[in-house]
């Protein structure tokens, strides 16, 4: 068992509600006045049932339901929601949150991820994950978590691609939308982040993409090489 000496540990500060700037996207604190129109369009685009299948909310197909949700979510300190804003267009194309924030123990989770069609399977989505992880570890957090329904195979594959380590399954962990949820747990810890970070930076570099936006070297390969 890892018995680190943490007698010096005094905890960390909760993340602040401020914009996180990236190369391709910015993570802006969720703001109904700024993000509602574009984010509702991304949320309600074709494929909404699949995007919401494993989210705690039901699909937000009406503007009234979405307005109610975003008004509440924007005020929440935990989960702390961010809009994923495309820097080239200024449009919010998705949202995600830092959540289950345990500043005393230096543990934080990324979740409530809804990446619209313009973000899914793009370098911008990978950067959105990277920016949250980098923020957490730069602030002194010791552990960055990813959790998902154990039936959510795409989410589990994404966690592995992003460099998270699978830690196990919590059986009968939650009741979500009237159904049992077994939860798969993944994490990155602070000692792993420098190596992972270097791989992310290399993958996100424009030189890693051809003129059609296709990657030259995959993130998994870069992580494995390091």
> Which CATH class?
Alpha Beta
How confident overall, as mean pLDDT? 96
- Total number of distinct structural domains: 1
Strand content: 25-35%
| CATH H-level superfamily | Gcn5-related N-acetyltransferase (GNAT)
Report strand order across the widest sheet: 1-2-3-4-5-6-8-7
Range of helix content = 25-40%
Largest sheet: 8 strands, mixed
List SSEs in N-to-C order: EEHHHEEEHEHEEHH
Number of helices: 7
The count of β-strands is 8
Tell me the overall shape: globular
Please state the structural category.
Answer: alpha+beta
Fold and architecture overview:
The chain has a single domain (20-225), classed as Gcn5-related N-acetyltransferase (GNAT) (Aminopeptidase). It is 32% helix and 28% strand. The chain has helices spanning 32-43, 48-52, 63-73, 123-138, 153-161, 193-204, 219-225; strands at 20-21, 25-29, 80-86, 92-102, 107-115, 143-149, 165-176, 179-189. Strands 1-2-3-4-5-6-8-7 form an 8-stranded mixed β-sheet, with helices on both faces. Helix 4 runs antiparallel to helix 6 (193-204).
Brief sketch in words of this structure:
32% of the residues lie in helices and 28% in strands. An 8-stranded mixed beta sheet has the order 1-2-3-4-5-6-8-7, with helices on both faces. The radius of gyration is 18 Å and the shape is globular.
């Amino acid at each position: 068992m890892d018995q680190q000496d943490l007698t010096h540990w005094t905890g960390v500060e909760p993340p602040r509600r401020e914009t996180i700037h990236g190369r391709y996207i910015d993570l802006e604190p969720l703001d109904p006045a700024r993000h509602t129109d574009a984010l509702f369009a991304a949320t309600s685009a074709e494929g909404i049932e699949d995007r919401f299948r494993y989210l705690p909310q039901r699909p937000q197909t009406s503007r009234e339901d979405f307005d109610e949700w975003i008004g509440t979510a924007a005020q929440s300190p935990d989960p702390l929601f961010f809009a994923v804003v495309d820097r080239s267009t200024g449009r919010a194309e998705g949202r995600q949150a830092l959540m289950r924030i345990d500043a005393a123990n230096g543990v934080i989770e990324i979740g409530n991820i809804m990446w619209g069609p313009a973000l899914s399977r793009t370098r911008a989505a990978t950067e959105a994950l990277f920016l949250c992880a980098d923020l957490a570890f730069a602030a002194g957090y010791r552990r960055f978590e990813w959790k998902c329904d154990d039936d959510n195979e795409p989410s589990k594959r994404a966690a592995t691609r992003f460099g998270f380590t699978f830690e196990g399954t919590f059986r009968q962990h939650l009741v979500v939308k009237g159904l049992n949820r077994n939860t798969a747990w993944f994490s990155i810890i602070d000692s792993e982040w420098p190596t992972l970070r270097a791989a992310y930076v290399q993958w996100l570099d424009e030189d890693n993409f051809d003129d059609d936006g296709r990657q030259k070297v995959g993130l998994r390969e870069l992580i494995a090489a390091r």
